[in-house]
Automatic annotation (TrEMBL), chains A, B:
Gene3D superfamilies, A to Z: 1.10.1660.10
Record's keyword terms, sorted: DNA-binding
SUPFAM superfamilies given in the database record: Putative DNA-binding domain
Pfam families from the UniProt entry: MerR_1
Source organism phylogeny: Bacteria, Bacillati, Actinomycetota, Actinomycetes, Kitasatosporales
Domain HTH merR-type: 1-68
CDD domains in alphabetical order: HTH_MerR-like_sg3
InterPro entries reported in the protein's UniProt record: DNA-bd_dom_put_sf (IPR009061), MerR-type_HTH_dom (IPR000551), MerR_fam (IPR047057)
Name the UniProt record assigns to this protein: MerR family transcriptional regulator
Amino acid sequence: MRIGQLAKRSGVSVRALRYYEEQNLLESARTSGGQRDYPEDALDRVQLIQDLFAAGLSSRTVVELLPCVSTGTATPDMLGQLTTERDRIAERIQDLSRAKSKLDRVIEDVVAAGVVKA
Amino acid sequence: MRIGQLAKRSGVSVRALRYYEEQNLLESARTSGGQRDYPEDALDRVQLIQDLFAAGLSSRTVVELLPCVSTGTATPDMLGQLTTERDRIAERIQDLSRAKSKLDRVIEDVVAAGVVKA
DNA sequence: CTAAAACCTGACGTCAACGTGAGATACAAG
DNA sequence: CTTGTATCTCACGTTGACGTCAGGTTTTAG
């Protein structure tokens, strides 16, 4: 599959895919003409990368963790980092939940007070 | 209260507080000498701002929403934006939960497989 | 064979939320 | 009064994940 196809199917930009390769997050074979040629499972990988980015992990962190995600094995250091990041995400979820509760209350209050005309 | 005190008590930097003022998120009275003088409730406000930032809202969005948060009233537009942001946060929470689940599984797998020596 | 798409590699631009001096002023302590 | 610490206003630097433009090559459609 070529880069445009992968971009469409994964929902990320062509530029982003090249960037992932630059960061060693994603490999690609090349055609004789030098164009990128991705295997089918690249799609899963891109989505995984996106999930981890969405979780606030940096590319540096992701590139360190991807190997254990694919292989299912890790050194003690890697396991430590995995749990560190997992915990960080859990905290973020707590923060977001707090913020959401605040907004929920504000919305409640506003609705209860009646919406003011422009 | 002066800016250093507010910074310590709120846990955000002096620079950040000045930035908030620049973005019209936070007001301050001034002493005759031109130094910022905050009322007690500035502390709550700073924490609210931090919560909303932590939730991924931009300063532009926060400055638009802060009035209804303080007053408890809003125009229809503001109510719409409030719910939009609330929903965005809810989605973020979903994303993070997905990412966390993935990491949880990876950690499980790694532990089950036995941690590899360095 | 040819024109249009799609792709390639640089390389500079962007944007937000500050960090980080520089140089000057204000205020508290002795 | 003087030293030291806090604060002031510019104003440029930082960082990450790309956006975007330039100039050239490859592939595909016809």
